[in-house]
């Protein structure tokens, strides 16, 4: 017989374990024998293939083409120096590919390390004591406790189950949740047995106790090699934009190269002069550092987010979060502290403070069934922490149990014999217990869901009929509590006959009390709400709480600013058409209360159809569909279920709404940093292209050689450019609205500033320095110079040095594209400072060492050349400051 065909006791005996679990010594022995409970990951792309990809992307292919043409030219005209150019371009490809691969590899390793901040824990019984262990430490024979929202960590046989349903889609493909119980099964196939839970599936509702019979690669999950990491690699808007940008720049580069080759031919230049000209244009326009900069920017933002309690699961989500226009947030635990305490009780037609009830023991005697209800109707587990037993579970239920124990002065541990689980449609939980006076059903939930099931009410005078007047009294009491921001629950009970078949018994109940629970708002949330308003991000509260409670909390935290906010309940939402819902979402302040999981998904879908970038928070198994549908799904790290975390793009380690806003700020910085990088890199293209235009149009000696262009693009510019990509968020980034969905990384504003303003300034400086040296050496217009003439070498050195000096100035100008350089922290980016130091060191090596002179075709320049260049750098700074001043004036 197979394990699922045994009774529960026979299954335990076959695994040589018990209801109380294994001893620690036996656990260690079995862990050594069976190994950790892990399914081997399906191999992704090999390191070698990923390495090769860094050398065959669009930019690299253009450079390969340029190198090939250079070697071809050398074969046709030996001794022309084209071989040196070919080797230099190959060096560019090699260095850029190695750096990009290393940066991507480090980013992935860092992301993997960050995700280990959230290890996967399981509730386990060992030697009769409940505790949390890592799922990897499970062994066959372990007794585990499971409840709604848990992932099943290994193949298990149920020992007891209370209204348990599981989602087996990942293993069997069944789309609907399947009921499970602990009875022996006659099924031949394990996966179809009603008493087995398979690794990789998830608990949709209910709870149970099970014994593990297979772990790791021995599970059904492992046998079919199904990944536990089922997340699909998505293509973010930023990735699509980078692909578009890469192709656009590559097309421009090649087109310019071909165009200027034809222009040169028409002007009578020789084929080889034209050839050098065309290759120079192509190499000058390819931003080799773009792809590693994007990776670095995302990786740095991801690590900074983790320090601010936002764990990114998919790196492209970093930038997507910065584009968010709407955040749909839960209330409990996200906007509030999730530190529940019972504040008020409605008993016998009066509202009491909890302290009053504690001082009146007669109330506990008169309403004993209510206190038993609060004490027993829950899904808490007892676990040993630091030598003391503590309750593990929902803070609301912990608060109710604590209140009941205090008021009763005792604990009644009546065994639970069945349960009707809570879900977002029922909005109530019922448990059935064997008490000394018989079987009793205890129920708690939202008043509107419990009240229709009640026919009697418990008062000071005993059990009486529930009249319409008393119903209204309960409704008014609920509203009074909710208006104070309290979460209100109704309690009811009834005695049962011997038969107790679950949900069918939830009728003819006796309504006994209302409880108002206080959950204070987090101190950081009002400031986070203020930042959202400044940043143009709309916050919509989507909660299962009473609308009055939600509205009261919304006003306390500053989400609600208007006098007449729109509050829509789940019942009202069901009656709204798609058009009506979209129109309602235009309200400046809106709250959704008493909504279910399917309705949350509908809200997200409507917002996306209105062209919003939507971020959604969630913690329950029912939130997973909405988290998947959203542009950015955000799961709670503390209270969130495993299912919610797997569906999310980001996990809040502290469950705090304020951490979302910090993450949005980092996300916005990514996009802006890439734009800063582009402005910086594209600016240097103009002083690199202009010398070739002057060479072709005005018949002057070529002011800048291709090898010197490479010295700028790959040598001196690379580290400062990467520093711009890794910059921290600008102070004013959260005072601007989210960028439009159709905004491009490379737009006309950036192109005009980089090419026609900063780039032209640099070109003027570099060409001025070039002619300054030539004229100082006695050169006159129209004279030709040999490529090894000392005057020519010094002139090209001056041109190159002028570009480096202006690029050092430019990195500070691009660092603060909107703010004045004089009002910014110029020295807070260590990568930029190291980059500037490297730039200065490299240009000195290129200008003043024999090795640098030989490789880059340079000669030392006199001090007066530097004195000629430096004022131009200062002038460039002042002109850019004037431009920023004028832009600010025009905006006002």
Automatic annotation (TrEMBL):
GO terms for cellular component: plasma membrane. SMART domains: Cation_ATPase_N (SM00831). Residues 2-75 form the Cation-transporting P-type ATPase N-terminal domain. Gene3D superfamilies: Calcium-transporting ATPase, cytoplasmic domain N, Calcium-transporting ATPase, cytoplasmic transduction domain A, Calcium-transporting ATPase, transmembrane domain, HAD superfamily/HAD-like. It is found in: Cell membrane. Keywords: ATP-binding, Cell membrane, Hydrolase, Membrane, Nucleotide-binding, Translocase, Transmembrane, Transmembrane helix. The chain crosses the membrane at residues 55-73, 85-102, 245-263, 275-299, 748-772, 792-813, 833-853, 865-882. GO terms for biological process: proton transmembrane transport. Pfam families: Cation_ATPase, Cation_ATPase_C, Cation_ATPase_N, E1-E2_ATPase, Hydrolase_3. InterPro entries: ATPase_P-typ_cation-transptr_C, ATPase_P-typ_cation-transptr_N, ATPase_P-typ_cyto_dom_N, ATPase_P-typ_P_site, ATPase_P-typ_TM_dom_sf, ATPase_P-typ_transduc_dom_A_sf, ATPase_P-type_domA, Cation_transp_ATPase_P-type. One of its GO terms (molecular function) is ATPase-coupled monoatomic cation transmembrane transporter activity. Its EC number is 3.6.3.8. Its main location: membrane. PANTHER family: CATION TRANSPORTING ATPASE, SODIUM/POTASSIUM-TRANSPORTING ATPASE SUBUNIT ALPHA. Belongs to the cation transport ATPase (P-type) (TC 3.A.3) family. Type IIA subfamily. This is ATPase, P-type (Transporting), HAD superfamily, subfamily IC.
């Amino acid at each position: 017989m197979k394990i699922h065909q045994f009774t529960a006791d026979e299954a335990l005996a076959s695994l040589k374990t018990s209801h109380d679990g294994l001893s620690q010594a036996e656990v260690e022995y079995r862990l050594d024998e069976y190994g950790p409970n892990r399914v081997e990951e399906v191999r992704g792309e090999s390191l070698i293939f990923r390495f090769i990809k860094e050398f065959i992307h669009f930019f690299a292919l253009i450079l390969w083409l340029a190198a090939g043409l250079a070697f071809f030219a050398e074969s046709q005209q030996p001794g022309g120096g084209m071989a040196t150019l070919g080797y230099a371009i190959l060096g560019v490809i090699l260095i850029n590919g190695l750096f990009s691969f290393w940066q991507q590899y480090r980013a992935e390793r860092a992301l993997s390390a960050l995700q280990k901040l959230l290890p996967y824990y399981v509730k386990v019984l060992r030697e009769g004591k409940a505790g949390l262990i890592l799922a990897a430490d499970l062994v066959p024979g372990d007794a585990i406790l499971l409840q709604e929202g848990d992932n099943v960590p290994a193949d298990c046989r149920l020992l007891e189950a209370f209204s348990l349903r599981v989602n087996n889609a990942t293993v069997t493909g069944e789309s609907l949740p399947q009921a499970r119980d602990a009875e022996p099964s006659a099924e031949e196939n394990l996966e179809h047995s009603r008493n087995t839970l398979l690794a990789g599936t998830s608990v949709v509702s209910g709870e149970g106790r099970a014994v593990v019979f297979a772990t790791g690669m021995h599970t059904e999950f492992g046998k079919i090699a199904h990944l536990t990491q089922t997340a699909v690699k998505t293509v973010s808007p930023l990735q699509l934009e980078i692909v578009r940008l890469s192709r656009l720049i590559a097309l421009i580069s090649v087109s310019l190269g071909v165009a200027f080759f034809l222009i040169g031919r028409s002007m009578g230049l020789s084929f080889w002069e034209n050839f050098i000209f065309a290759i120079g244009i192509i190499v000058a326009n390819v931003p080799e550092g773009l792809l590693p900069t994007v990776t670095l920017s995302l990786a740095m933002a991801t690590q900074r987010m983790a320090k601010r309690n936002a764990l990114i699961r998919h790196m492209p989500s970093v930038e997507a979060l910065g584009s968010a226009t709407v955040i749909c947030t839960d209330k409990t635990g996200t906007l509030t502290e999730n530190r529940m305490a019972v504040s008020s009780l409605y008993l016998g037609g009066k509202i009491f403070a909890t302290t009053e009830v504690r001082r009146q023991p007669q109330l506990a005697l008169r309403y004993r069934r209510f206190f038993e209800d609060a004490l027993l109707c829950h899904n808490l587990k007892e676990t040993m922490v630091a030598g003391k037993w503590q309750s593990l579970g929902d803070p609301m239920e912990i608060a109710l149990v604590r209140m009941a124990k205090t008021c009763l002065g005792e604990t009644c541990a009546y065994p639970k014999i069945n349960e009707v689980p809570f879900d977002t449609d029922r909005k109530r939980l019922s448990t059935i217990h064997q008490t000394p006076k018989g079987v009793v059903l205890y129920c708690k939930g939202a008043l509107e869901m419990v009240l229709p099931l009640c026919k009697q009410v418990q008062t000071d005078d005993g059990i009486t009929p529930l009249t319409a007047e008393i119903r209204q009294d309960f409704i008014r009491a609920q509203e009074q509590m909710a208006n104070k921001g309290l979460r209100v629950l109704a309690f009811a009970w009834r005695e049962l006959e011997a038969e107790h078949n679950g949900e069918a018994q939830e009728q003819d109940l006796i309504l006994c009390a209302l409880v108002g629970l206080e959950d204070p708002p987090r101190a950081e949330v009002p400031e986070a709400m203020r930042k959202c308003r400044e940043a143009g991000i709309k916050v919509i509260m989507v909660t299962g709480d009473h609308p009055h409670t939600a509205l009261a909390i919304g006003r306390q935290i500053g989400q609600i600013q208007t006098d007449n906010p729109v509050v829509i309940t789940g019942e009202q939402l069901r009656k709204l058409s798609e058009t009506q819902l979209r129109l309602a979402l235009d309200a400046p302040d809106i709250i959704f209360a008493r909504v279910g999981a399917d309705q949350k998904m509908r809200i997200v879908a409507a917002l996306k159809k209105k062209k919003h970038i939507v971020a959604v928070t969630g913690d329950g198994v029912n939130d997973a569909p909405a988290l998947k549908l959203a542009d950015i799904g955000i799961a709670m790290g503390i209270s969130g279920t495993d299912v919610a975390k797997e569906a999310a793009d980001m996990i809040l380690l502290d469950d705090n709404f304020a951490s979302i806003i910090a993450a949005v700020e980092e996300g916005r910085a990514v996009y802006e940093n890439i734009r800063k990088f582009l402005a910086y890199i594209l600016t240097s293209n103009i002083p690199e292209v202009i010398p070739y235009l002057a060479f072709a149009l005005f018949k002057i000696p070529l002011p800048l050689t291709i090898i010197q262009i490479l010295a700028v693009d790959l040598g001196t510019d690379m580290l400062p450019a990467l520093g711009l990509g890794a910059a921290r968020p600008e102070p004013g980034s959260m005072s601007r609205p989210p960028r439009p969905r159709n905004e491009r990384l490379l737009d006309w504003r950036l192109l005009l500033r980089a090419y026609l303003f900063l780039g032209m300034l640099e070109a003027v400086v570099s060409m001025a320095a070039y002619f300054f040296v030539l004229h100082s050496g006695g050169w006159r217009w129209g004279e030709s110079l040999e490529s090894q003439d000392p005057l020519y070498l010094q002139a090209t050195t001056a041109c190159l040095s002028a570009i480096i000096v202006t690029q050092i100035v430019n990195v500070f100008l691009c660092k603060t594209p909107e703010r004045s350089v004089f009002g910014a922290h110029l020295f807070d980016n260590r990568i930029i400072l190291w980059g500037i130091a490297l730039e200065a060191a490299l240009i000195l090596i290129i200008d003043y060492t024999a090795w640098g002179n030989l490789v880059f075709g340079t000669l030392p320049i006199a001090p007066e050349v530097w004195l000629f260049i430096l004022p131009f750098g200062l002038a460039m700074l002042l002109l850019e400051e004037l431009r920023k001043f004028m832009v600010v004036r025009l905006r006002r």
